[in-house]
Amino acid sequence: MMLEFNKCCFCVPLRIGCLILGYLHLVASAILAILSIITLAAVSAVMSGWSDDGKVQIDQQAAGALLAVTVIMLLLVLVLLTFSILLVVGLHKEKKNYVKAYLIYYLVFIVLYAIVYVVRIATLPYDLGYLLSTLAEILLSVYFLLVIRSHWLTMRENNFNTA
Asked: Hey, is 13 helix, strand or coil?
């Protein structure tokens, strides 16, 4: 049996804590989306050779790879934004299927992030700052996942809306 919480952060009612987490995820994903769009615009400007003096020498292969990575990052951030909206709507309207969809998405995200973390540790030089900060992020994400799951279980028990 998995952990189940009655409160968020040991002091806030579960529903309120989940709403706070939902809005924090929503704000963070909106900021990431804006930054990704700005980055995409900057990369596009560099690829077009735009500059004040008009004398820019760029490596087209590297710029193309950077553009591809930026577009993929933007798509991933838009998926994050979509699921964050789904979580907030699901929590407000007590739609347990919306919250369940977010839980599945977030679980997949945490698993993939943990795999990337392990591969990074195994293949690149040792970096204590990265090691500790990323481990803390993963553990905090697991805790938040368990808090939202606890509220979802409460929603199921109380037979709230299913659609």
From this structure: strand
